[in-house]
Specification:
Number of helices: 7
Helix content: 40-55%
Strand order of the largest sheet: 2-3-1-4
Largest sheet: 4 strands, antiparallel
CATH superfamily of the largest domain: Lrp/AsnC effector binding domain/regulation of amino acid metabolism (RAM) domain
CATH architecture of the largest domain: 2-Layer Sandwich
Structural class: alpha+beta
Strand content: 5-15%
CATH topology of the largest domain: Alpha-Beta Plaits
Length: 216
């Protein structure tokens, strides 16, 4: 079996395990007439054999070979409450403009400082929160919530910009420059974290020149 098909098949089986059997491997094995711990072995070895894959498709009324086709993960709505240390709420709100999956951002009064609405796949959401938001300087902590698709509605609304640096003036230009620099720094840190690059010499060198003060 080709590696790509094996990965797609395993991802589909794991998805169906959650959707059809609520993540209960024993229940799935019982309904399909499989041996104990069979599903766990598939997952740990990263391989679902052909015969049981066809059996799952037949049991669920799927077309033959359906498990070997990639399925686009569903988009879900998530809400994030963010606590910021100090006075960097404006910078954080501007920073979130870089991410298309972020649909709405608002500063808050009260215990939390920023409200963020996200529409994305689960993997994209995890990457945004864990690798982007929580690594932003001065973020204390985040609280995340997932919306229930069957019990959610919203009124269509236009985007409202509360003068956070998109006015085109000097403040807006400075904010964009700062945000681009911050994005480059975060990308560099992420590359270091993944061992994609190594440092052979200092990146930044600071030089201090003493000043003399004269009294008249």
């Amino acid at each position: 079996m080709k590696k790509q098909i094996r990965i797609i098949r395993l991802e589909n089986v794991e998805r169906l395990l959650e959707e059809e059997w609520g993540g209960n491997k024993s229940k799935m094995e019982k309904e399909l007439g499989l041996g104990q711990s069979t599903v766990g072995k598939w997952i740990s070895r990263g391989n679902v054999p052909d015969a049981p894959a066809r059996k799952i498709e037949e049991h669920l009324g799927l077309k033959r070979g359906e498990l070997d086709r990639s399925v686009e993960p569903p988009l879900r709505v998530y809400y994030v409450m963010v606590s910021i240390r100090g006075h960097r709420v404006r910078e954080f709100i501007n920073y979130l403009r870089f991410f298309p999956i972020v649909r709405e951002v608002s500063a808050l009064f009260g215990e939390m400082d920023v409200f963020v609405k996200v529409e994305s796949t689960e993997r994209e959401f995890q990457d945004l929160v864990l690798r982007k938001m929580q690594r932003f300087p001065s973020v204390r902590y985040t609280k995340t919530f997932q919306g229930l698709e069957g019990a959610r509605w919203q009124v269509a609304q236009e985007a409202v910009d509360l003068n956070f640096g998109r006015d085109g003036g000097s403040e807006g230009l400075l904010s964009r420059i700062i945000n681009l620099k911050m994005e480059a720094i975060f990308n560099g840190l992420e590359a270091l974290d993944r061992n994609l690059v190594t440092l052979s010499k200092p990146v930044i060198r600071l030089e201090f020149t003493p000043k003399r003060y004269w009294r008249m």
